[in-house]
Write a sequence for this structure.
C-alpha cells in the first residue's frame, strides 16, 4: 500500500503506470469507500498539488481547463463565466462551499456519474477530455469517455489532465439548469444544458442540448439542428425542444423521482436551458447560476 | 480484514505541528479527534452532507469526514479550537452567542468554520450570500435565523 | 412581559430589540471545549458495534457468535442469552434488549460486540452468523387490520401493558373521542364534506447521532448517554438489567439536539451489559445510518379520513373521523398516540358532535415514538387542509371560516373542555397581519393559513438551589438541556427570587445521581415543571436569607427585601447587608440550601366518553398557534418554495424571548421540511430505503424564508411560572398545513399526501394518478 503526493504530471502518470489510483479532493472516493461501493485503492497518488493541473489556459481556438480546477473557481473565473457560462451555472449548484472547494472538474468527469452537473455543459460546449499516460496523450470527446454509471473508457493508467473546450465565437450563449428540491446540498433530479449560437438575423445558427440524470450517462438530444436552425426561439420552438428532450430521455424511477416525472421535467429544464442560453447569446446578462437568477427549481 | 497500512503524517493544526502515524485510509476528522485529541470538530453524518465536521484547510472550508488525513500533510488546518485568540472570542463566535444562534451547539463548530471562511472571502456578504455560504451546514434547532443574523452582525460591525 | 390582568397582548418580535440571553453553556459550545458523549474517552475504553436484523420480519433459526469472538481485538460478544430475559418498553412490554426468537424490523438488535478498535468491532459484528426464516411482513395499515393478516406480535395478549391500553391482534392501542351523536347530526347538516389524507413517516434527525459510554465501578455503573430523558433511561437500565436505581447513574454531557428522537430508553443497557461482559468501559457511537434505522423514535405515518357537517351559516355541526397510525414493530411510548391524533384531527374548533376512532397499528417497520409534537403536524395538516375545503364549500374566506369556528374563552371544544382565556382568535389575526398579504399576488403565489394546538404537560419535577459561602449559587437539577435553553433559563428564575443575577448561578444538570427526578426534555415540560421546582427551592433559600438578614438588620423577616445582591429593610434601602455577607455567615452554620418539588397543577376533567383514555383529552395550559405561509409554486415542476411565514403563538407568558423565538423559528423550518422534502421511504417489506442525509432532505440555510413571529400572551391559563405554558413542540404543529393551503390556492386542488413533494404537487395539479409518486 502506498500514498504519494505528486507535484508534476509526469510523477502522477508514473505512479498510475505503477498501478496507483489518482485522488484529487477525494470526496467521491472516500464517501464511496465508506458506503461499501468500492474500497479505497491500496495505492493512491494525490494530484491536487500539481500546478499544471490547476490552470485555465486560453489558446487561439480552445481553452484548457485543468483537471484539478475546483468548482469554486469554475463558478467565479471570469473566462468561464463569460465564455462557458453553462459550466459556471453547473459548478455553482454543486453541494456547498466546502464541496465546491474540494470537488474538481476532472474528478467529476472521471467519476462519470450520470447526475453530475458539469457533464451536460461540457457536452454542449463540445469539450474533450485530455488523457495522459506514459504512452503519451490522447483526446476523447467527453461523451465518448463515459461508458455508464461510474464507468469510463479511459484505461487505468490514463490521467485526465484537462478538459479542452472550443472557444465560443459570435453570438453565443450557454446555460445549465436543473430540477432541485432544496437550494443547497442538492443533487440533480434532472438537469439540462444548452448551447445556442445566433445568426445575425437573430435566428438560431447552431444549438446543442444535453441531459443529466435521465440515462446511464449524460446524453445529448439529437436532431435539434433541424428543429431549431434558422428558427427564432419562441413558444413553439421551445415546446419542441421540451418534447425532443423528454422523448430522448430514458429515466429510471428511484427515491428522487419517478421515471414519468423525470421525463416531463427534463423537458421543462431543456426548454429553460435553451431559453436562457438564447438570451445570453443576445448579450443579456443572466447571473450565474441561472436556477437562482430565473427562479428555477427551488429558486 | 486486510491490515491497513500505517503511514507517518505531519498535521499542522491551529499552528501546532503534530507528527502522527495514521492509517492510509483514515479521514482527517478521525485524525483530528482521536490522534490530535481536539474534539470540537463533530461527526454528524460521515457522508459530506451535514457540515458538522467542517475545518479550514489553508483557509478554505473542507468536510474533514471525507478528506484523507494523509492529504492534509503540510497544509494549515484550522478547527473551532483555533478561532479564539486566547480568551478573546473571534467576532463570529461572539456574534453567534449574542444573536442567539447557539442551541444544542452540535452544528456550531462547523457553522463557525463556514462563516469564518465566508467572511474571509467576502467581508460584506448580502443576506442571500450568507444563506448560500452556510448552505452546507445543517442545523436542526434554530431554523438558521439567529445564525444568519449573527453573520450579518459581524458584517455590520465590519 | 407579564401582561396586565384581563388583556391579551400581541408582540411582533424584532430580534434585534430582544434582551440578550446569556447561555451558561454558550462559551463551551462556541469554543469547541464542550464535550458531547461521543467526545468522551476513558482509559481502557472499548468500542461497540451492533448486529442488526437483515430482515424486517423473520424467525431467528440459529445465532452463532463463535467466529466473531475469535476475531482480533474482540473482548465481548453478547446476545439475548447474556442478559436477563426481560421484556420492556413504555406503553407495553413488547420488546427485549436483543431479539430472541424473532426480529420485527430492520433495526432490531441481535448481538453487540466490544473490541479494542471500532474497525475490529465492526468486523466482528459482520462475522456473527445468523440464520433466518423469513416471515411475511406487515406493512399496509389497512391490511394489517384484516382478520387474515399475519401478526407482528402473536403473543400480544400475554404481554404486560400500561393500564387502559385497548389492544388486540395488530392493534397496538385504540382510542376514541366521542361527543354528542355525530352520525345522526350529519343528517341534519346543510353541507357534508369528506376527505382522505395520508402522511408518510419522517424522522427527528438531530445533528448529533446518539452515543453511549458505560463504565462499571464494582457493582455500580455510570452511563454517559445522549438522552433527552436521563431518568427514563435509568428506569430502562434498572428494568432490563435488574438493578436498583441507586446503582445506575446516567449523566448526559452536552446533548446535540433530540426533537423527541432521543426520548425513551435507548441502548444504555446494551452498552452497560457489554462493559460488564468485557470488564472495561465501552463506547457506542451511532453512524447516521444507524441513527435513521434503529431507534424506536420515528414520526409515524398516518392515514386520516374526515367527514364534517356544516350548517348553512358555515358553523361546524359535527365531525367524524378515522385515523390509522403506523406504530411500527414495537409500542415505544406510542400508547397515547391514537388519542392525541384524535384531538388533532378534531382540531381547536367548536362542535356539538364529534366522533373520532383512532388506531395505532403494529407493522414490520421501525417503531414510532414521540417526535416533537407527536401526531400533531400530520393531524393538523389533515384537518386544516380539510378546513380550507370546508371554507370553500360554504363560500367563505378561509380566515373568516376559522374565526367563526375556532374556540375562544368560554367555548367548548371537541371533548367538552371549556377553555379559559386563550389567544387563538388573536393568533389568527396576528399571523395574517404578520405575513403581510399584498392585495394582489402573481398567479404562482398564494398565502395559506392554518391553526393548531398542543397541550402543556404538568408533572413531577425537582431541583436543589444553594448559595455557597461567597454568595454564588448552584442549581442542581435533574432537568435535561437539549439545546432549547430551558435549563439555562432556570438561572433567571432563581436569580429573580433571590435578588441576584443569572450570572451568579451555575447549573449542575442531567445527572441522575446528583439531582432529584425530572421527566427530561420531553413534552415541552422543562420550564413549566422544573421552573416551578427551582422557584420553590429558591424561595426557600430566600426565606433563609431573610431570616439571617432580619437578625443582622434587627428587623422582621417579613420586611426584608432581596434585590441587587443585597437584603434591605422595606422602605429603607440604606438598612442593608450584602447577600454575600449573609452567605458567609450561613457558610459557618446552617448553610443556604433548599429543594423544591411542588405538586404539579392538575389536568382538567373532561366528559369525552373516550375509549382507551390515555389522559390526553383534557388539556392543561393549552397552547394555540396560527401560521400564515406565503408560497410560490413552479407550475411546470411542482416545486414549492416558502417565501414568508407569519407565526403567532399563544404559549402563555414568554419568560425568555430570544430562545423562545429560536424555538418558533426552528419549528417552522422543521415544518417546512416536513411539508416539502422530508420523507422516509420503505420497500415493500418495510425496510428503510433512505437512511442518510443525501436522500432524507433537511432544509438548509439557503431555503430559509422571511419569518415574522408574534408572541400572543393571554395572561391566564398558564401552568408554569408567571403564566408560562410549554413551548418547544407547538411551533412544529402548524406550518405544513399552512403551506398546503397556499399550494392548494395556487394549483386549485389540495395535495392529499404529506410531504407535498414537487412530484406530488405537479401530479395533483395535472390530475395525474401517482401510485409510484415520490
Amino acid at each position: 500500500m502506498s500514498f504519494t503526493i505528486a507535484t508534476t504530471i509526469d510523477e502522477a502518470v508514473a505512479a498510475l503506470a505503477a498501478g496507483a489510483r489518482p485522488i484529487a479532493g477525494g470526496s467521491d472516493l472516500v464517501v464511496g469507500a465508506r458506503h461499501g461501493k468500492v474500497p479505497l485503492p491500496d495505492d493512491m497518488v494525490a494530484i491536487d498539488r500539481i500546478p499544471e493541473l490547476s490552470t485555465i489556459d486560453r489558446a487561439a481556438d480552445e481553452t484548457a481547463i485543468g483537471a484539478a480546477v475546483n468548482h469554486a473557481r469554475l463558478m467565479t473565473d471570469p473566462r468561464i463565466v463569460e465564455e462557458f457560462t453553462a459550466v459556471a451555472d453547473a459548478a455553482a449548484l454543486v453541494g456547498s462551499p466546502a464541496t465546491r472547494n474540494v470537488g474538481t472538474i476532472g474528478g467529476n468527469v472521471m467519476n462519470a456519474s450520470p447526475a453530475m452537473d458539469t457533464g451536460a455543459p461540457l457536452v454542449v460546449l463540445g469539450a474533450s477530455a485530455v488523457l495522459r499516460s506514459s504512452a503519451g496523450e490522447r483526446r476523447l470527446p467527453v461523451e465518448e469517455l463515459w461508458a455508464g454509471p461510474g464507468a469510463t473508457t479511459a484505461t487505468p493508467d490514463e490521467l485526465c489532465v484537462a478538459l479542452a473546450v472550443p472557444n465560443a465565437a459570435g453570438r453565443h450563449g450557454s446555460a445549465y439548469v436543473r430540477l432541485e428540491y432544496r437550494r443547497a446540498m442538492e443533487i440533480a433530479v434532472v438537469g439540462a444544458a444548452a448551447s445556442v449560437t445566433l445568426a445575425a438575423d437573430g435566428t438560431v445558427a447552431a444549438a446543442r442540448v444535453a441531459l443529466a440524470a435521465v440515462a446511464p450517462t449524460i446524453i445529448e438530444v439529437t436532431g435539434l439542428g433541424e428543429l431549431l436552425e434558422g428558427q427564432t426561439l419562441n413558444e413553439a420552438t421551445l415546446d419542441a425542444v421540451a418534447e425532443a428532450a423528454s422523448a430522448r430521455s430514458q429515466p429510471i424511477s428511484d427515491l428522487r423521482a419517478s421515471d414519468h416525472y423525470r421525463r416531463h421535467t427534463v423537458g421543462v429544464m431543456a426548454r429553460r436551458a435553451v431559453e436562457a442560453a438564447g438570451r445570453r447569446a443576445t448579450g443579456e446578462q443572466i447571473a450565474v447560476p441561472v436556477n437562482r437568477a430565473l427562479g428555477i427549481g427551488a429558486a | 480484514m486486510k491490515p491497513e497500512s500505517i503511514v507517518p503524517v505531519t498535521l499542522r493544526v491551529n499552528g501546532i505541528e503534530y507528527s502522527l502515524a495514521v492509517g492510509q485510509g483514515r479521514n482527517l476528522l478521525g485524525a483530528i479527534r482521536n490522534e490530535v485529541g481536539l474534539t470540537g470538530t463533530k461527526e454528524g453524518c460521515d457522508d459530506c452532507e451535514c457540515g458538522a465536521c467542517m475545518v479550514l484547510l489553508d483557509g478554505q472550508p473542507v468536510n474533514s469526514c471525507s478528506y484523507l488525513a494523509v492529504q492534509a500533510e503540510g497544509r494549515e488546518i484550522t478547527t473551532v479550537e483555533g478561532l479564539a485568540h486566547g480568551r478573546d472570542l473571534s467576532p463570529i463566535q461572539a456574534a453567534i452567542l449574542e444573536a442567539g444562534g447557539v442551541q444544542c451547539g452540535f452544528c456550531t463548530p462547523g457553522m463557525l468554520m463556514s462563516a469564518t471562511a465566508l467572511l474571509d472571502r467576502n467581508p460584506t456578504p448580502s443576506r442571500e450570500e450568507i444563506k448560500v455560504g452556510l448552505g452546507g451546514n445543517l442545523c436542526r434547532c434554530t431554523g438558521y435565523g439567529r445564525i444568519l443574523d449573527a453573520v450579518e452582525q459581524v458584517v455590520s460591525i465590519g | 412581559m407579564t401582561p396586565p390582568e384581563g388583556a391579551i397582548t400581541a408582540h411582533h418580535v424584532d430580534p434585534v430589540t430582544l434582551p440578550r440571553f446569556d447561555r451558561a453553556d454558550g462559551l463551551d459550545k462556541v469554543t469547541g471545549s464542550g464535550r458531547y458523549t461521543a467526545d468522551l474517552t476513558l482509559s481502557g475504553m472499548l468500542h461497540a458495534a451492533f448486529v442488526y436484523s437483515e430482515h424486517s420480519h423473520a424467525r431467528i433459526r440459529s445465532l452463532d457468535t463463535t467466529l466473531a469472538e475469535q476475531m482480533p481485538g474482540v473482548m465481548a460478544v453478547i446476545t439475548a442469552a447474556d442478559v436477563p430475559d426481560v421484556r420492556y418498553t413504555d406503553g407495553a412490554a413488547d420488546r427485549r434488549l436483543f431479539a430472541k426468537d424473532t426480529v420485527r424490523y430492520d433495526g432490531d438488535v441481535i448481538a453487540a460486540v466490544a473490541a479494542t478498535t471500532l474497525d475490529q468491532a465492526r468486523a466482528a459484528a459482520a462475522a456473527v452468523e445468523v440464520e433466518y426464516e423469513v416471515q411475511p411482513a406487515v406493512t399496509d395499515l389497512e391490511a394489517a387490520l384484516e382478520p387474515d393478516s399475519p401478526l407482528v406480535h402473536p403473543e400480544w395478549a400475554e404481554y404486560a401493558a400500561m393500564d387502559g391500553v385497548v389492544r388486540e391482534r395488530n392493534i397496538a392501542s385504540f382510542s376514541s373521542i366521542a361527543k354528542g351523536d355525530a352520525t345522526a347530526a350529519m343528517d341534519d347538516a346543510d353541507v357534508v364534506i369528506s376527505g382522505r389524507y395520508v402522511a408518510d413517516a419522517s424522522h427527528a434527525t438531530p445533528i448529533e447521532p446518539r452515543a453511549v459510554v458505560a463504565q462499571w465501578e464494582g457493582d455500580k455503573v455510570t452511563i454517559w448517554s445522549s438522552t433527552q430523558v436521563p431518568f427514563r433511561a435509568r428506569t430502562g437500565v434498572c428494568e432490563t438489567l435488574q438493578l436498583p436505581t441507586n446503582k445506575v447513574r446516567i449523566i448526559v454531557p452536552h446533548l446535540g439536539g433530540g426533537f423527541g428522537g432521543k426520548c425513551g430508553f435507548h441502548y444504555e443497557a446494551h452498552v452497560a451489559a457489554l462493559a460488564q461482559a468485557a470488564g472495561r468501559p465501552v463506547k457506542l457511537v451511532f453512524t447516521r445510518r444507524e441513527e435513521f434505522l434503529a431507534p424506536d423514535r420515528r414520526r409515524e405515518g398516518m392515514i386520516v379520513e374526515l367527514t364534517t357537517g356544516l350548517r348553512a351559516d358555515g358553523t361546524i355541526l359535527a365531525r367524524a373521523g378515522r385515523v390509522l397510525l403506523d406504530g411500527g414493530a414495537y409500542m415505544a411510548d406510542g400508547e397515547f398516540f391514537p388519542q392525541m391524533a384524535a384531538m388533532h384531527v378534531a382540531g381547536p374548533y367548536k362542535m356539538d358532535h364529534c366522533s373520532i376512532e383512532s388506531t395505532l397499528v403494529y407493522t414490520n417497520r421501525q417503531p414510532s415514538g414521540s417526535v416533537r409534537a407527536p401526531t400533531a403536524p400530520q393531524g393538523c395538516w389533515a384537518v386544516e387542509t380539510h378546513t380550507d375545503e370546508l371554507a370553500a364549500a360554504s363560500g367563505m374566506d378561509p380566515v373568516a371560516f376559522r374565526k367563526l369556528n375556532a374556540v375562544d374563552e368560554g367555548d367548548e371544544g371537541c371533548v367538552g373542555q371549556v377553555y379559559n382565556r386563550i389567544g387563538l382568535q388573536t393568533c389568527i389575526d396576528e399571523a395574517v397581519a404578520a405575513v403581510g398579504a399584498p392585495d394582489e399576488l402573481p398567479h404562482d403565489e398564494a398565502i395559506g393559513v392554518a391553526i393548531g394546538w398542543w397541550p402543556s404537560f404538568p408533572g413531577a419535577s425537582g431541583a436543589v438551589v444553594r448559595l455557597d459561602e461567597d454568595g454564588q449559587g448552584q442549581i442542581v437539577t435533574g432537568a435535561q438541556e437539549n439545546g432549547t435553553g430551558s435549563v439555562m433559563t432556570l438561572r433567571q428564575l432563581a436569580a429573580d427570587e433571590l435578588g441576584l443575577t443569572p450570572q451568579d448561578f451555575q447549573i449542575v444538570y442531567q445527572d441522575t445521581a446528583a439531582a432529584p427526578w425530572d421527566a427530561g426534555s420531553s413534552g415541552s415540560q422543562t420550564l413549566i415543571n422544573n421552573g416551578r421546582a427551582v422557584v420553590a427551592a429558591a424561595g426557600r433559600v430566600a426565606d433563609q436569607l431573610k431570616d439571617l438578614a432580619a437578625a443582622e438588620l434587627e428587623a422582621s423577616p417579613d420586611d426584608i427585601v432581596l434585590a441587587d445582591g443585597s437584603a434591605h429593610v422595606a422602605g429603607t434601602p440604606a438598612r442593608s447587608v450584602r447577600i454575600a455577607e449573609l452567605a458567609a455567615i450561613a457558610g459557618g452554620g446552617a448553610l443556604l440550601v433548599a429543594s423544591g418539588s411542588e405538586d404539579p397543577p392538575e389536568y382538567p376533567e373532561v366528559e369525552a366518553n373516550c375509549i382507551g383514555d390515555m389522559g390526553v383529552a383534557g388539556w392543561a395550559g393549552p397552547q394555540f398557534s396560527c401560521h400564515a405561509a406565503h408560497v410560490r409554486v413552479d407550475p411546470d415542476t411542482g416545486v414549492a418554495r416558502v417565501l414568508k411565514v407569519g407565526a403567532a403563538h399563544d404559549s402563555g407568558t414568554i419568560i425568555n424571548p430570544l430562545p423562545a423565538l429560536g424555538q418558533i423559528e426552528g419549528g417552522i423550518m422543521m415544518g417546512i421540511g416536513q411539508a416539502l422534502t422530508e420523507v422516509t421511504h420503505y420497500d415493500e417489506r418495510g425496510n428503510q430505503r433512505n437512511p442518510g442525509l443525501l436522500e432524507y432532505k433537511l432544509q438548509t440555510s439557503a431555503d430559509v424564508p422571511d419569518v415574522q413571529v408574534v408572541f400572543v400572551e393571554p395572561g391566564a391559563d398558564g401552568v408554569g411560572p408567571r403564566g408560562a405554558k410549554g413551548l418547544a413542540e407547538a411551533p412544529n404543529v402548524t406550518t405544513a398545513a399552512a403551506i398546503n393551503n397556499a399550494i392548494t390556492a395556487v394549483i386549485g386542488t389540495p395535495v392529499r399526501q404529506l410531504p407535498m413533494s414537487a412530484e406530488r404537487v405537479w401530479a395533483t395539479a395535472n390530475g395525474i394518478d401517482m401510485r409510484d409518486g415520490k
